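Blackboard transcription, Thursday session:
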Amino acid sequence: MTVARKINALHFGILLFLLICFFTLPAYHVGALSRIMVLAIYAIGLNILFGYTGLLSLGHAMFFAAGMYGLGLSIKFLGVSVVLAFGIGILSAAVLSALVGLLALRTAGVSFMIVTLMFAQTVYLVVLYFGEFTRGDEGFVLQQAERMLAGFDVTTEAGRYFVAFGAFSICLIGFSALVQSSFGKRLVAIRENEERARMLGYDVWRYKLLAVIISGTVSGAAGALYALLFGYVGATFASVQYSILPLLWVLLGGAGTTIGPLIGVAFMFYLIDASSAYTSAYMLIAGLALVVLTMFAPRGIAGILRTKVSPWLP
Amino acid sequence: MAAVTLLETKGLTKTYGGLQANTDIDFILKKGLVTALIGPNGAGKSTFVGMLSGRTAATSGRVIFEGRDISQLPAHKRIQLGLAYTFQITSIFTGLTVHENVALAAARTVSADGNTLNAKVHQTLNQVGIADRADQTAGDLSYGHQRLLEIAMGLAQEPRLFILDEPTQGLAETEINDFIALIRSLAGRTTILLIEHNMKVVMATADHIAVLDQGMMLAEGTPAEISANASVQAAYLGKTVDA
Amino acid sequence: MEFGPHLMLASLEGAVIASILVLTAMGLSIVFGVMRVVNVAHGEFFMLGAVLAWYVSTALGGHPAIGFAVALIVAPLAVGLVAAVSDQLILKRINYDPDRTIVGTIGMLFIIQQTTLMTFGPEARPVEAPFNQRLALPWFEFSEGGLQMIWPWGLSITSYKLFVIFAALTVLVALWLFLTRTKIGLIMRATQQDSETAKAFGVPVGTVYSCVFGLGAALAALGAVLVVPIQQAHYLMGADPLLMAFTVVIIGGLGSLPGTVIAAFLIGMSDGIISVFFSPTLAQIIATFLVAMILVFRPQGLMGKAET
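(Written on the board underneath:)
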């Protein structure tokens, strides 16, 4: 089998597995998987920038929040249709990521991390400041009637699962195509050796900006989807914690791999799920995982698979 | 065939703080020739080619490539016009395979079609003699092979001007001989600007030699003229000028 | 109250904020200056100092001054020790790689914060100030009878707040003497200049790094012990000092100690003054955004020199 066939087989296998899960697993896990798939889209968004381009953003929550509030506020205050609201959500994230990219890409390394962190903090504070509309930390709920996606009810367990599944399928396939394209290879080249890429005639700055925009827009789509499927919009999703979590998922699953984000989210979800029986301080698990990962397994689960078992993993 | 001017600099100057690294360099590079740029350490050779390729911003002066003023263009635009550059300190994508390294270099000029690209990569690797290592991770190659890979990345771009910054530095004697053969095989087809310390390489490959000393162009000429030039010997070869 | 006395009150509050901030930011700045790493867990070391101060003063009982005095010594030492140990256990083993250090210290942030939540609990707990007399302050005014001294109602400061300002200044002077006059301080500064050369001269760079990391954390803890009689101890209290300290270090020029002191003073004062007159959230939005823009357009900081 050629490498391209193997990769396609792997991705379709994963999607088939997720489909089978719906028909075989109990309701609790079906609900959990819907959430995992949406958050995996968010992790895919960060992975494009961090895993493939080598730019570590500590502020991706602002893009997630842009998608979430873009959808939520336009439904609540403008009364537009869900499809249009979804478009507004994605557009908000795209515009925000273009602006952030234009500014933050003037810096590199540690400064880039701090600048993205500061921009995200600004967005978070803005959400709190306009509490009259956003309801701040408390957030607001989208009513069932407001959550009909083109006549399709996403408030049922099945509706939610299949919308999440559809969106995740599109993202995974698109993501896989992106990283195997010449564009994706150039992003990896920039991650590996930026100066060499520039001296091969590539406009490094433009590629990085595109990576920020694609990454931010995908993260925003995840935010809009989350608000739509789970009916809640709140400032927590704009906080630092929601910038750190996708980083954790990507590191855990394997930065710079296509299957890493899903593995990371699923693993972390069930780890926290299991630990919540013992403690309310579940972020302790996240902290321990970050320290252990960065010390002993900086390549994550899929990264280990790639070095030990199957070097062709995309 | 009369030699046509490919690249020209006018009054090219670089100042670091108060220090003049390059002063008012007027230089003409002829098409189709191998030109060697020599000079003692700290003469400003790397600064000079840095300003040609756009890695270093010039303080003043102009760079004209194929009749076009490229002084204001950023590095990647100049590369797109047909300059290729190999680094003094080996710079490759260590985490990618040899094949991927060369493919990245070739992909900008060769059509996106996978087969054409693969053929181009294979041909280039053959040319430098490391085709059997195509699937190795570049970082695992020996130092000599990494230098060859970097040259391959330059060749794969089919440059109109190929700038090599001390390509033989750190190579073994046999590898140097292979390098000389490689440069000779390119002679006439590709214009080459070679920065080189090893006089054996210079004498074996260069059609034309330019000597830089203390940031200024000291002399230019054929290898025979330069060997006979007394001031070059004083400045560079370290010999005293005998009366 | 009229504008003049109001402004004076705001400036005094600002001076108190600046005093705490300068200690916290110096800790972050020293760590960055010597080790070239960004410690995201710095705010949690601050929080740990405050929480330990509560434990110490509660355990000792008696006059509040006893507990406070003991906490002033015990908390920074204990927090410094925790930091030095985590440096040895974690940061040293990832070779202070900038990216991995950020991820590692984010992990430490959650470990410290959540462990505190599990032991200390989610409540905010007060520590009583050792002394707390209210001192009324005079204001001068021109009126028909010439210059007059009046005592506007509400224009006052507590003796404890004056003590905080005084204590912070003392610590700064001590720190300066430590860095310039002692052998350990000299070794730290030599390592900051060039760790490779320092290593070649037989400086145990690994140990120096642990000491520096411990010192940085201890300074944050010291600031927290000073603040805890004014602001209660809480497991989430580390976030604000972290962002403020970041701001100060960036504006002062990354790693520049004099820049840090000046920036801490400016930012503490303006924070105190702005939050008296404006909505604190709006002030924070403007401040955070401005700091990001400074990093974007003047990465060497406002006081730093451009690198050539």
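Lecturer's comment: The mean pLDDT of chain A is 88.
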